[in-house]
């Protein structure tokens, strides 16, 4: 498949995990990529992963903090300057934050998680949607979470932010569908990414792999998801194959969220 031939796709949080997996998938399908992350080394590693499957891919790396609106304006400007347009946007960058019950959850920590996971998504929508509206087309995928559909114990900031992402997705989809723009969200569950590994290590640094085995037992499939499985879903939603899917939040969690 060459669904992204001639298309420009921006991916935030591209330095690892879901962002990297989506970038590799889009590159396989000849997309032109603007990769955004605060971790410059991670971006270079993602570019290397892309070169292994698509040696001639057009790739622009932009180091940015999505919680700073000026940085968001810059990565959008750089993408348009390089490729002339933005056809797809994976609004993905996020952090988990520390785990504590609500009464012990630090106010500064709460603000930090909200700034990255919710304000960063809002800034991305604000500036990318202007470009897409002016060009009369585009597709956006926001990264929500099963934590944006139901509660997640000891993660007040993360759950609040991801519920907010769901709201932003549906609200902006209502506003921008008339301009030929689709806006959807993916809601990953237990996907084995560096962020999830870090979460398990917060619970038990010495035996985190065993914690992980227990963590997936409520899942009907009894395993972690792979970043590549999310990347393939994101690529589908950004492609023309998903032309009439809009304002939808799609769980990709092995069926776990439907057990509650």
From TrEMBL:
Q: Which GO terms describe its molecular function?
A: oxidoreductase activity
Q: Which UniProt keywords apply?
A: Oxidoreductase
User: Out of the domains of life, which is the source?
Assistant: Bacteria
**Is Iron-sulfur one of the keywords?**
no
Q: Which Gene3D superfamilies match?
A: NAD(P)-binding Rossmann-like Domain (3.40.50.720)
Q: Name one Pfam family in it.
A: adh_short_C2
SUPFAM superfamilies to which the protein is assigned, alphabetical:
NAD(P)-binding Rossmann-fold domains (SSF51735)
Report the family membership: Belongs to the short-chain dehydrogenases/reductases (SDR) family.
The molecule here is called: Oxidoreductase
The species this protein belongs to is Neomicrococcus aestuarii
């Amino acid at each position: 498949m060459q669904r992204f031939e001639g298309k420009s796709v921006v991916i935030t949080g591209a330095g690892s995990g879901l962002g990297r997996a989506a970038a590799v998938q889009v590159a396989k399908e000849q997309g032109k990529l603007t990769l955004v992350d605060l971790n410059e080394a991670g971006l270079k590693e993602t570019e290397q992963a892309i070169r292994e499957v698509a040696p001639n891919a057009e790739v622009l790396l932009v180091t940015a903090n999505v919680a700073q609106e000026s940085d968001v304006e810059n990565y959008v400007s750089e993408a348009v300057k390089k490729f002339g347009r933005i056809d797809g946007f994976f609004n993905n960058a996020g952090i988990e934050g520390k785990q504590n019950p609500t009464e012990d959850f630090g106010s500064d920590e709460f603000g930090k998680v909200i700034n990255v996971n919710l304000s960063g998504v809002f800034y991305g929508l604000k500036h990318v949607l202007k470009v897409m509206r002016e060009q009369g087309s585009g597709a956006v995928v926001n990264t929500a979470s099963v934590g944006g559909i139901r509660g997640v114990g000891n993660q007040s900031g993360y759950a609040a932010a991801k519920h907010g992402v769901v709201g932003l997705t549906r609200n902006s989809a209502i506003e921008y569908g008339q301009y030929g723009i689709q806006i959807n969200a993916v809601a990953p569950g237990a996907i084995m990414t560096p962020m999830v590994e870090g979460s398990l290590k917060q619970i038990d640094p010495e035996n985190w792999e065993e914690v992980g085995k227990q963590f997936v037992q409520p899942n009907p499939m009894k395993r972690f998801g792979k970043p590549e499985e999310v990347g393939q879903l994101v690529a589908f939603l950004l492609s023309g194959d998903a032309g009439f899917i809009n304002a939808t939040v799609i769980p990709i969690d092995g069926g776990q969220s439907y057990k509650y």
